[in-house]
Records
---
Amino acid sequence: MIDLPLVWAFLIAFSVFMYVVMDGFDLGIGVLFPTFAVGGERDSAMNSIAPVWDGNETWLVLGGGGLFAAFPLAYAIVMPATYPLIIAMLLGLVFRGVAFEFRWRDSAHRGFWDLAFAGGSLVAALSQGMILGALLQGIAVEDRAYAGSWWDWLTPYTLLTGLGTVAGYALLGSTWLVWKLEGAAQDHARRMAVRAAWATIALMGAVSLYNVVLRPEYAERWLSMPDLLWAAPIPFVTGLLAIALLRALAQGREAAPFGCSLGLFLTGMAGLGVTIFPHIVPPSVTIWDAAAPERSQSFMLIGVAITMPLILAYTAWAYWVFRGKVDQDGYH
C-alpha cells in the first residue's frame, strides 16, 4: 500500500526545491543588481532571466497549493504563524515583477524601477529565509491550531536563516551570470560570486551549528546513532561541493560554479529533511497528523501526475531554447 502522506511530502519538498533554485537565482540577481553598472551590465543581467523568471514562480504556486490541499492542518498552522513574512514576501515578488516590466517601458524613471527591483528581490529573499527559520525553531500548537503570538517568528535564529538565504540566492544569481554573460559584466559577476560563496558557506555552517543547540531532538538526529549514519554524508558532501565551487570560480570556469551552487542547495535541502522529518510543523505535527483524507490525496495525485511532467517539460524546453550567452540586446 502506498503511503500517500509520504508521497505528498516528497512532492511538496521537490516543488519547494525547484522553486528555491529556479526563482532563487533571479532573486539573487535582484539582490546584486545595485552592484552592476547602470546601462549595459544591468540590461544584460535582466535579459538573462527575462525568458524564464515568471515561469520559475510556477513552483511556488505548486508548493503552496500542494501544502494547502494535501496537508491542510499544516497550512492552517504555518500561515498565521508567519503572516507578516508571507505578506512581505508576496509584496516583494509583486513589486519586483512590476519593476521588471516598467524599467523597460518607463526609461525616464528607470533608476527608481531598478531600486524597486532590487528592493523587492531582497525583501522576498529575506522573508523566505525567515519563514524557514520560523518553521525550524518550532511553532506553538494547541488543539490543532497556532497558539503563538504575532511576533514569534522574529528571533536571532530567523534573522540568521534569512541572511543565509539572501547570501545563497546571491550565489545562485552571480554564478548564473558567470555562465550567461561575457566580458566585463562576467568578470564582475565572478567577483560577486566569490564573495557570495564565502558568505553562503559561512552562514550554512552557522545555521547548521545553531540547529544542533536549537532543539534537543535536532541534536539527537545529527549526533546520535544510528541517525548519525544517515546524517554524516551530508556535511561531507557539502564540504566537497564548497571546495569544488571555489576552485571552479578561481579557474575561470563558466557553467561549473552554477552546478556546484545547485549542489549546495540540494545538500541543504537534504539536511533540512534529516533535521525535521517526519514533522511538517516542528515539534508536534507530523506529516501523517496533518494529512488530508486518503481519497482527497489520491484524487489530487492524479492531477499532479498530469501537470508536473508538463511543467517539467516546458521548463526544460524554455531553458534549452535560451541556452546561449546574453548581452544588453538579448540572447545570441
---
Amino acid sequence: MSDPKIELIPSKTALCVDAAITLDVLIRIAPPPPATSVERSPLNLALVLDRSGSMAGRGKMHYAQEAAAFAVWQLHETDRVSVTVFDEHVDTLVRNAPALDKTAITESIQSVLPRGSTALYDGWLEGSRQAASGLIDGGMNRVLLLSDGLANHGVTDSKAIALKARELADQGVSTTTLGVGDDYNEDLMEAMAKTGDGNYYYIQDPVQLTDIFQTELQGLVATFGQKVSIGLDPVADLHTLEMLNKLEGTETGRLKLPNLVFGQPIQLVVRLHVPPRAAGTDLISVRLAWDTLDGNDRRVLHATLRVQESIPKADWDLLPADPAVEQHVALLMLARAQNEATTFYDTGDFVSTRRTLEDAAAVAARYSSSPEVNDELTHLSRMMLDLEEHRGDRMRKQAKYRSYSRFRGSPSAPVTNPDEQVPPSHRDDPDKPHA
C-alpha cells in the first residue's frame, strides 16, 4: 500500500522582496485510493441506542432500529458486535461476540421500546466496555452512540464524559456520536467525538439514519491510519503562524487529525506572515504521523514548502491567488462565522446572530462558482430561516455541526433538507419502513 501524499499549495506563487506579506498555504493530505484486492480490517462495533421516551416521536426509534439492523447485516463473521440500550436503566441485549447470528441480533434490536429518561453516560460506558472486552488488534474498535436527548440521569458533566472518551480512545476504543432531532446536547456529542477519536453527526430527520450509518461504516472499513497528527514548523523568522482550522493539540505540541481513510482527503489552511525575503527560501515544513491499524508501526512523512520567486510588493499585489486556496480560506471563514453566530445566540443576542450569518452569506456569495461554497450558501439560508421562525435550536445545531466538520479538514457529512429528502409517504407515516 502506498503512503498518502502531502501537497503544499501557497495562495500566491512568489514571495515579496521588499515588504512583509500574509501568505495562506493549503495543506492537502491525499490518501491513496482504495485497493479493491486488499481485504478490509475487521470491525468491533458497539451499538448504543437511546430508548428514552422521546425516541417515540417522529418514528425515531423505528429508524434507529432500522439503521442499527442495517449495520449488523453489513458485518462479516470475522467482525464483532454488541448492542446496548439505555433510558435511566442500561441493558446489554447482545454481549460482545462474533457477528454470526445476524437474525437473532436484529430481532433483539427490533424488540426495543422507548421509555424513561436518559442515562447517556452509563449507556455509552457500558457499550465501551463491551467493545473493550472484544478488542481487535489490527481492527477498528468503535462505539456508535445514538441519542435524541440530554444526559439527565447519572453522570451529566460534559467535561467528565469527554475526558472518559479520551481515556477510552487511548486504550483503542473510539466513539462516534449521532444526535437526532433538535433536543440533544450538541456540545457534549461533539466533545465526545473529538476526544473519542471518532465522528459526530447531526441528524435533522430520523429518516437519514440508515444513510449516516452507511457513511460511518464505509469510513471504518476504509481506514488505514489511526492516531493521526500533524506538526508544522515555520522557518526561524516567521514569527506568526495561524492554523485556520480548529484542531485539538497533542501532548507533544502537534495537532490531531481525523483517521486516514482511503480516498478521503484532509484539507487544512495555515496562514503565514512572511517578512521580506529572497527567492528559493523554505517557508514551512510539515510532519504527518499515524499508527497503522495493527498498532505495530508509527509511520511518518515530511514535506517542505519552498517558493522559488521573490518580487517587489507592487508586482506581488497583482499576482492572482490560487482558486483552491481561496476557496478553502472562504469555507473556513464561513465556519468561523457559524461558530460565532452560535456564541451570540447563546447570549440571547439574536440581532448579532442574524447579522453574523448574513455577513457570512455575503462572503460566500463572492465564491459562488464553487459547489462547496454554494452548498454552504444553501445551509446559511436555512439557518437564517430557522432563526426567523424561532427554531434557534435547529439553527445552532446546524451551525455547530457544519463548522465542526469543516474545521476538521473534511467535507461535511450529508445534512439535507428533510422536506427534499423524505418521500411524502414517509412524512405521512413515520412508522413505514424507509427503503
---
Amino acid sequence: MDCRAYLQEARAGQRQQAMALLFSIGVVAALAILAALLLPTLIRELDFRVARDERATLKTFGTALQSAIRRHAYIPSQTNWANTVAGEAGMASAAVATNPRGQPRLLLIDTNGWFNPVSLPYTQTSAGSAILPLNPRLIIASSLGKALPLSAGPLSAGEFTNLWTAAEGTTNFPTNGLWVGWNGRSDDVKLERVNLQPLFVSLRVETYRNEALNGLYAIGTNNTLYPAIYDSDVTNNPPRFYLQNTVLKLYSDAGNLDSTQILIRDSAFKYENRVWKGSVGGGATPGGVDIGGVVYDFLNAVPNTEAQNGAAQQRLVIQSMMGYMSNYIAWANGNFTDNGLKTYLLNTVQPNMISTVQGLFQGNANAYYPTNASGP
C-alpha cells in the first residue's frame, strides 16, 4: 500500500473518531440538560413521598401510644416513649426514635393542664388521679430538614400552644420564642398531636349511708380490697379518674366477688342492701352487660306487628321505662321524702310502664301474640 492511500485511510479513521466523540459529547450534554430540568422535579417528588410517609408513620405512632397507655395503664415520658411505641407497634426502638432523614423524633409535653402537676412517666395506681385530666396533650415532632430548635420533654404553656395550633408550611408557624433564628422550612416539620383526655373515665365507688358494713373493691392488678366510703361522706369521696380498660372488681362486705367491670366510660357504683348497684335507682350490677347495647338490640329486634301499637311498641316500652327511672331518681334525690311523687310513681308511672310492656304480647282482648312469619 502506498503512503498516499495509507494517509487517506488514517484521516478517514480520525474523522470517524472525531464524529463519534462529538456525538458522545452531544449525548452527554443533552443528558446533562435533561437532568438539570428533571432533577428538581424528582427531588420534589422524593420529598413529597418522604413527607407523606412520615405523616402516616407519626399517625401510626400516635395510635400505638394510646393503645399502649390503655393496655398498661402507664404513660411514658420523653425518655422512653419510643420503647413503649416500638413494643406496641412491633418495631425496633431505633426506627421509632429516628426518622428516615436521620433526625430524632421528639415527644413534647403540654404544661397547660394535667401534665403540670402530674409528671411523666405516670403509672396508674389503685387510687387513680384525684385531678381532673384537662389538656393531657402530647406532640410527636419530626423534622425532615433542619433540626428542630426544641428539646424533648415539657414545653412552656405558650410554646406548646403555639406549636399545637401551628400549620405546616403556613405563615402561622411559630417564629418567636425557641424558633427565633431557626431558618428551616416549616413544611419539613411533621407533628402528630395526641390528646389523652378521651382515654380517662371518672369513677365513684361508695356504700349506702344506712348500710351496716362497707362494700369492698379492688382496682387493676392490685388485689388489695378497699372499703367503699359511705355516700354521706362527700368530702372524702370525690370522683377518681382512671384510664380506660382499667379493671374494677366489686366484692361484698364478706369479701366475696360480686362482679368484674371493665371501665370504658364514666361510672358510679353503690353498695346497698348488700348488693352492688350501678346507680341510686339501678338494679344489681349486670356483670359487664352493656345496657346501652341491650336497648339498641331491643329497639332493632324484629317487631311484633300484632302488638298493641304495632312496630312502635318497642319504642314505647323504652320511653315508659325511662319515664319511670327519671321520676324514681328525682324521688331518690329528695331522700324519698316527697310523698306526692311517690304516689305519682305508684299510681300512674309504674302502671303505665307495666301496661306498655304487656302490650308487647297482649292487649285488651289478649290477641297480641306474635304472628310474624319471619319473626322468632
